[in-house]
Structures are given as structure tokens and as C-alpha cells.
Please model this.
Amino acid sequence: MATRTVPKLDFADLQDRLQRQFQNLDSKDPSLWPIVPRVLLCLFIAAGVATFSWFFKLTDYEEELAAERATEQTLRTDYQKKLVKAVSLDMLKKQREQVQQYVIQLEKQLPSKAEMSALLSDINQAGLGRNLQFELFRPDQIVVKDYYAELPISIRIIGRYHDIGAFAADVANLSRIVTLNNISLVPVAKEGGGNLTLEATARTFRYLDPEEIQAQKDATKKKKAGAK
Model:
């Protein structure tokens, strides 16, 4: 039986052939190069393009990553705030109920429009009950606010010091809110017998009726529309 001989590879001859392919290359016309230099050139160009594309895209990825990290930090902060609110929700509800009850109590201290006459009578009776003489008791122009109205009352009374002090305490203890402002206390003339004259502005407040609140809102809308 005949044996098949495998030809030996001459590495020296192969190396010599490769070296000859890289000699006398025309840099102006790579299409004339031998096959090996052309293949290596194509691989080098492909690697360069791939590397450039990679770094160019990597820059976009870095910017996107930085933006996402900033968004993550914002979401974490928002989550922590909401978590604190969620944990203290029951306490906030109780505080809200307490505030609502407090507001209701304050509203009860404000008379309605129909109760203003009775309140003015109470102020007048507080002075007469302390043996004070009213020289002036004049309700002035009502000042309407957003949700309440303020009524200033100019008063001038004559009486003894302790009686005037007791009158001020009685006014402070009325079931409705009444304040004394712009107080002036001077002695009466020599023949006044030690009496003093109190001049002040008593201010009381009342809440607006639903119709008055709506009228205030309409007036505000008209004012804004006129400003435009």
C-alpha cells in the first residue's frame, strides 16, 4: 500500500514572499497593492472607524448616564420627602383637624351681618354698666376684606380711671372679637372731678355672607379683566 507524503511548508519562502508584497508600494493608488497589504489596510481602516464610532457614541452614553444619575437623585429626594409625609400622615391629619376646629372657634367669635346691631349694643352697655358717659359712639365705614368685614367705631367716653379700665376688660371679654385701637386717655378739665376722657377706635369684625363672598370674587375678576 502506497503512503501519501505531506509537502513541507517552507516558512522562509513564505516570509520572503510577504516581505516582497510590502516593497515598493504606491501610496497614491492602494488599489495596485498586493492582496495582503490591501487586506491589512482595509482592516486598519475598519478598526479606526469602529474605534472612532465607539468613542463618539460613548460620549453620548456618558451624557445620558449623567442625566439619568441626576434624575435618579431628584427621584430619591422626592421619594424621601413623600416617605416622610406618608410616615407622618396620621399626625398631619390630626393637626389638620385641630386647625379646622380652631378656625371654627374663631368663626364663632365673628358675628354675622344680622348680629352686628346686637354687638354694638353690647359695647354700649359695657360702657353704661361702668357708669361711663358716652360723648361719641359712631360706627364708621365698613372695610370689606376677602372673607370678612371690619367695622371701626369711633368712641369718646368720660369716666374714672378704674371704670375705664374695667370697661376695656369687659370689651375684651365679649363673646365676639372687639379690639380697642388708637387709644388716647387725657384728664378732663379741672372741674371734671378727676374724670378722664378716653378716645379710641373700637374695631369689630364679622364674616361675610355667601352672597357677599361671591360679590367679592366677581369684583376681583372684573378688576383683573379690566387690568388686561
